[in-house]
Amino acid sequence: MGVEVRVEGLTKAFGKQTIWRDVSLTLPAGQISVMLGPSGTGKSVFLKTLIGLIKPDEGHIFIEGVDIATCSEKDLYEIRKLFGVLFQDGAMFGSMTLFDNVAFPLREHTRKTESEISDIVMEKMTMVGLVGAEDKLPGEISGGMRKRAGLARALVLEPEIILFDEPDSGLDPVRTAFINQLMVDLNQQTEATFLIVTHDINTARTVPDNIGLLYHRHLSMFGPREMLLSSEEPAVRQFLNAQTVGPIGMSEEKDADELAAEDHSTLPPLPPIPLQLFPSDGRPRATQPEPGAWCAANGVVPPPGSFLDDGSSFTVPPQTSVAGGAR
């Protein structure tokens, strides 16, 4: 099972440039969370800060009772063992085969025999659909395969927290769909805590349990998927629904004249909230909420057509599990 990550009042600047300030959120144990934001808002910096590669100027990051923003190098080294990271380009060693790339963390950080390492590597490569490609070099395979190999490497130490830095970057829509399904399936199998940084709106709308939006040097909102997909907060609404009307412009934020010139009275209605992506076997993940549960609990009427099943609106009866409801 994954572990909770609690962030309190996190602030980071490089010189006079503030990246973000006073960021507070909790990544619930075992759940999938997505972090969104316009380009240049510090999403990758946030990931690097979570794992201790960058020290924040202010604030705290609590993982299993340890504040990695202030702890010793020894304690930080131990906490990092809880993490697995999928980098944007896979970050493969070009002169190593995929097998050796995936085996690298085991050879560096454990005392396992080569036979044990081989069993673990092949298990993880099976999980990501790369059996038969273990002897290939990174330069001999596609970008999507490199990402899957990077994911296999991130899994070999059985991490309880997995960070994904734009897993869909550079991929076509079909391969992005495969990566999304793979992440959902892996969360079901590992029950680890996932944080995904992405620009892909379809990923954000269908994959996570929680969504966050970094914008204008702060965290605009973080919470359950249904809360953000039904939100009328201007930046959240604009970004999640890919609209041009709103505070976000080509250079991140619009100036006052641009905003004043916009006609907000003609905003299109919020689109329906889609059903969340299920694991391939059709069984809900351990932490997967029921469709419409947040809306019902908070008295929010979702946009018309939300949670469709076989062409009709889906309503969650009280105390009814997802397994017996819509898919």
From TrEMBL:
Tell me the ranges covered by the ABC transporter domain, including all copies: 5-241
Sequence intervals crossing the membrane? none
Under the heading Gene3D superfamilies, the entry gives: P-loop containing nucleotide triphosphate hydrolases
Q: Pfam families from the xrefs?
A: ABC_tran (PF00005)
Region: Disordered, residue numbers = 278-327
Q: Which InterPro entries match?
A: AAA+_ATPase, ABC_transporter-like_ATP-bd, ABC_transporter-like_CS, P-loop_NTPase
**What are the Polar residues biased-composition ranges?**
312-327
Q: Which UniProt keywords apply?
A: ATP-binding, Nucleotide-binding, Transport
Instruction: Please identify the protein, giving its name as recorded.
Output: ABC transporter domain-containing protein
Species this protein is from: Aeromicrobium flavum
Q: What is the lineage of its organism?
A: Bacteria, Bacillati, Actinomycetota, Actinomycetes, Propionibacteriales
